[in-house]
Amino acid sequence: MPLKKSKNLLYFLLAPLAYVMLSPRVNKYLYRPLLFKPLAYPSEDGEHLPVAMGVIPDELYFNSYGTMASKETLHGWHFQHPNADAPLVLFSHGNSGNITIRAALCEMLLESGVSVFVYDYRGFGKSTGIPNVEAVCQDGLAAYDFIVNKFSLSPDKIFLYGESLGAAISSYIASQRKSAGLILQSGYSSLRNIAGETVRALNLYPSWLFPMPGKNSREILSVSHPPLLIIHGELDKVVAFHHAQTLFDSASQPKQLLSLPASAHSDLITTSRELVTATLIDFFKRSSAVVQ
Q1: Residue 60 in contact with residue 76, Cβ under 8 Å?
Q2: What pTM, to 2 d.p., does this model score?
Q3: To 5 degrees, how large is the angle CA 109–CA 238–CA 268?
Q4: pLDDT (tens digit, 9 = 90+) per residue, 199-215?
Q5: Residue in 229, 221, 281, 224 with CA at minimum distance from that of residue 255
Q6: Domains along the chain with CATH numbers
Q7: d(C-alpha 273, C-alpha 105), whole Å
Q8: 40: exposed, middle or buried (Cβ count in 10 Å: 0-12, 13-18, 19+)
Q9: Per residue in 57-86, pLDDT tens?
Q10: Which of 172, 161, 163 has its CA nearest to residue 280?
Q11: How far is CA 159 from CA 124, 185, 213, in A?
């Protein structure tokens, strides 16, 4: 066989293999820095816990799911509302930092009348391990089951709150566990859509070559789900507002969309706190009444 034809045949055989091997579903190591930007917990020298609405959180540790060899130790904070009967929000945060930069959001939730459990996925803060899409979703389920057992909670006392990446994780938890309500802040409609907007070359890949195909928030919300509140800044340049509109349009009832004209991706505490707090108070009251 002529050399040129041999090279063409080799290219013909290897190109599809390279295409698959470089896909987000297969090559997790390549895409991990794009999706996850964890920070270690601040040095224990001079470490102090935040105070939110006069409440100092309890530090709690729990195990991730997996085999004995793959289990990780996950870390979280529990802010107990002064009202002992208040429901509890399971807070799944975004893809960067750790729980230490979410204290202001926790305080806003406390002001809305609920207790809060915020946790770090594996590889974030004090949590051990290395994150990937499937693993952090399992971390969310582990956190849910942990608070149910730790605080003897029934589903009608648990609300799921997800911020950015955490919105996808909270949606996944809602598809696997019961809750009183689901709140998605600054979330994206699907991993493939946001990935393609961030790195245009990823538009070359179909959804089945992304992690957990068929588990995106848009599809999860299209069927039965707990009362839903979507919160999104209209000035968001990280996850554009059209993602919120897509989620809302795709979701079944009951649903509510709170658009924030003056807010971007992570500044709702400084730009829209009063409006968001009032909406959360109303949502918690109405959703608790629905499940009772």
Answers
A1: yes
A2: 0.90
A3: 30
A4: 777 777 788 777 775 67
A5: 229
A6: 3-38+50-291 (3.40.50.1820)
A7: 10
A8: exposed
A9: 999 999 999 766 678 999 999 999 999 999
A10: 161
A11: 23, 13, 25
